[in-house]
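Regression check, magnesium ion case 252:
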Amino acid sequence: MFLVTHPSERLSDLVVSTEIQERIERLLIEYRNRNKLQKYGLSNRRKILIEGRPGTGKTFTASVIAAELDLPLYTIQMDKVVTKFMGETSTKLRQIFDNISTSTGVYFFDEFDAIGADRSLDNEVGEARRILNSFLQFIEQDTSDSIIIAATNNQKLLDQALFRRFDDVLHYAMPTSDEVRRLFEIRLGTFDSSFKVSDEAVCMASKLSHAEIIRVCDDAIKNSILMNTKIDNVYLLKMLKDRINAYIAKEA
Ligand SMILES: Nc1ncnc2c1ncn2[C@@H]1O[C@H](COP(=O)(O)OP(=O)(O)OP(=O)(O)O)[C@@H](O)[C@H]1O
Ligand SMILES: [Mg+2]
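Current build output:
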């Protein structure tokens, strides 16, 4: 049900708005000072919900938080938890939350709405909805040292009842042009520190998600290694065009 990993991604590699960056830093600082906070009867923020389009860094953020806090990352495989037998799903959820309190770590529930969103699993008494509610209650009642991160790209699901359960809700958007530039700098900079990305490439890449831009960078790096050439903007533009066409075809 879990996939345990020990990520090494750094916060400096995550490209997000200043506001989101500060909120993540705050979670890290509060975690590191949780004993100090406890002395004053306060608990550190440790349950967060991340909502956003595919490829904007939700999973990446969970890895960054685990790495920065030197904690194992437990990714919960929702497809293994949610079955059409509601009793079984409940039992598994209980096991997961037992684990959360006995083994401290970062617990990442990716696409957690799978629990309640699949209407075909729902029956006349709304069992799927009830399971989702019980999941939210488990989250609410949890007082462990672990960090719980739930991610979704289903904005419709976000109602007030859901927000209440979390200490913080982060909305991830498509990259701004400043973020696009930073993505290029970070990814290509490790390979060729003298390369300067053109405004045209930045403008074109603004149509893509963070993940797609990183893939274009990696393709450019690979090409430059294989062809024994330097990375250049003309080639980068060509690859951006190809990816945008594929991306638009996929979205359509
Ligand atoms: N904000 C970001 N800053 C830096 N790199 C990013 C960012 N978002 C995505 N990436 C890169 O793209 C890869 C894939 O992104 P990630 O899996 O985190 O997206 P996601 O939001 O979880 O998407 P999905 O909704 O499809 O699960 C990351 O491993 C990372 O290399
Ligand atoms: Mg993801």
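Comparison notes: The chain is about 55% helix and 10% strand. Residues 216 and 239 are 6 Å apart (CA to CA). No diff flagged against the previous build.
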